[in-house]
User: Fold CutA1 divalent ion tolerance protein from candidate division WS6 bacterium GW2011_GWF2_39_15.
Amino acid sequence: MKIIYVTLNNNEEAREIGNELLNKDLANCVNFFPITCIYKWEGKVTEEPEVVLIIKTKEEKYEEIEKIIKSHIDYTNFVGMIEIEKVRGEFKDWLNSIVK
Assistant:
């Protein structure tokens, strides 16, 4: 099991991307929530709200998921895969029943 951590501008983007991933069986579950981001861009430190989208999936789905994310947004954002070493057996079974 892998988690893909994605930063987005707002809940609408997270909801649209999450629904598409679920409808295409690329994830069994997604979560999104607001955060505050401080970053440096073009020599300036900026603070602004963001939304994190967490996608629960399998490693081999990363490229397809990244393409879907890019089809919804046109700005530079973070998309990264996180290794999950252990996961509850029932959750893993659920993931495997959805994401083939």
Summary: The first helix runs from residue 11 to 23. Residues 1 and 88 are 11 Å apart (CA to CA). The chain has a mean pLDDT of 97.
